[in-house]
Amino acid sequence: MLSSNITQQHDLRVADLIDYEAGAWNKEVIWSIFNEEEARAILAIPLSASHPSDSLFWWPNKNGEYTVKSGYWLAKQGNQMPRIDLGSENILWSKIWNLNGPPKLRHFLWQACKGSLPVMERLRHRHITMNAMCPICKEEEETIIHAIFECSNVREIWQHRNLQETINEGPAGSFMERWKWLCEGRNADDLRLIGALAWGCWFCRNKAVVGQTVQQKVMTAAGS
Ligand SMILES: [Zn+2]
Question: What is the mean pLDDT of the chain?
């Protein structure tokens, strides 16, 4: 499935994703547009050294040619796919985009909103692990909300900016709900700070999983 933010960019071409001077994929552009799975899949495609121009390719067929049978197959798939409200996703994406943060921050927030961060609950859902308990505090199931806002590992970061109580008043069903709630009535600077702290919390979480403590660095980087 295509990232929803790309379905609106009708004039985007494969060539726009390539850094011709470096002779490589333009990683920054790819990570800012596609979700993690798609970005990794694109970056795994070797590029031709001869730089051939773009051409139309009908992906359901191996040879790239359209056939009625493959068109029918694709139409049937479409009926079975879950309905996604692209309108509200696009609004959410444009809000993240308008934060004007570094592409990595925007990509992180988008992944968190899409529920794509590899927290334990997500890994259990994908049958990669049986146990969804938070590997750090071992007190609760590790959801994205838990890892970023609630875990004992990150409380200090939110408390440092006096944000913990305010932030945890928001919806706890998913990061997307929480983020949408945070967007209401806050300016881009506040949102960028909250987004950067959330990103810092995720960074601390990933370091804590391998036994490192980096909260102080995150708090220093975010200013006091
Ligand atoms: Zn925890």
Answer: 82
Cα 92 to ligand 1 centre (Å): 27
If asked whether residues 36 and 73 sit together in one domain, one would say: yes
Distance 105 CA to ligand 1 centre (A): 22
| Nearest-angstrom CA–CA distance, 112 and 173 | 13
Q: Which helix (H) or strand (E) holds 37?
A: helix 36-43
Segment among 69-73, 92-96, 136-140, 164-168 with least mean pLDDT: 69-73
With a cut of 80, say whether residue 62 has pLDDT above it: no
**How does pLDDT run across 107-118, given as a tens digit for each residue?**
899 999 989 899
- Is residue 101 located within the same domain as residue 198? yes
Ligand 1 centroid distance, CA of 155 (Å): 10
CA distance 110 to 86: 14
The rounded Å distance from CA 35 to ligand 1 centre is 25
Residue with the bigger pLDDT between 10 and 182: it is 182
> Do residues 39 and 30 make contact, with C-beta atoms less than 8 angstroms apart?
yes
Instruction: Annotate 118-146 with b (16+ C-beta within 10 A) or e (fewer).
Output: ebbbbebeeeeeeebebbbbeeeebbbbb
Q: Are residues 125 and 30 in the same domain?
A: no
Q: Please report the pLDDT score of residue 82 as a whole number.
A: 44
For ligand 1, the distance from its centroid to the CA atom of residue 14, given in whole angstroms, is 41
